[in-house]
């Protein structure tokens, strides 16, 4: 299936998830991530602030911050590249482009993600075999992940049924090292 049709199918499946399912998935994903030593030890974490039916990260971001990690969140640029700014508690976010909540803090630049010890990204799907990630079509995370070193754990958060076979890949599409689903963490490379 081509990217466009696969995105359409995956987004339709997400729309069908109930608020209860979304909440239950978020809890499982948060708890499973927070019990990983390499998550607990990461001093600087790049994450995202979820919207709509995306795997929810609000509790995860809060927990990482409470735990003492510095959390940077994306600020979407005009060209769909990602700038980054520091999360400093629930009162430090404001709506940005497309109404997505972004930190009001100083922008740290597109290269800030290079300094993260852990990178948590959204995805519509991840290929079970290759680890290739499918996003919403902006290519933002292909650009961000290109700046992340090979030894930094990169984790895509997914709902059930989104770790699949046959994700179409173009040369610019990047992989993630882990996929986190409500069923647990899968190491991909
Ligand atoms: N490294 C990059 N530099 C500049 N533009 C890029 C880069 N990676 C992807 N893009 C742009 O993003 C567009 C969408 O990429 P695509 O992989 O289809 O989206 P997504 O990763 O969000 O699913 C590409 O057609 C390309 O124009
Ligand atoms: Mg891509």
From TrEMBL:
<dbReference type="InterPro" id="IPR024185">
    <property type="entry name" value="FTHF_cligase-like_sf"/>
</dbReference>
<protein>
    <recommendedName>
        <fullName>5-formyltetrahydrofolate cyclo-ligase</fullName>
        <ecNumber>6.3.3.2</ecNumber>
    </recommendedName>
</protein>
<comment type="similarity">
    <text>Belongs to the 5-formyltetrahydrofolate cyclo-ligase family.</text>
</comment>
<keyword id="KW-0460">Magnesium</keyword>
<dbReference type="GO" id="GO:0030272">
    <property type="term" value="F:5-formyltetrahydrofolate cyclo-ligase activity"/>
</dbReference>
<dbReference type="Pfam" id="PF01812">
    <property type="entry name" value="5-FTHF_cyc-lig"/>
</dbReference>
<keyword id="KW-0067">ATP-binding</keyword>
<dbReference type="InterPro" id="IPR037171">
    <property type="entry name" value="NagB/RpiA_transferase-like"/>
</dbReference>
<dbReference type="InterPro" id="IPR002698">
    <property type="entry name" value="FTHF_cligase"/>
</dbReference>
<keyword id="KW-0479">Metal-binding</keyword>
<keyword id="KW-0436">Ligase</keyword>
<keyword id="KW-0547">Nucleotide-binding</keyword>
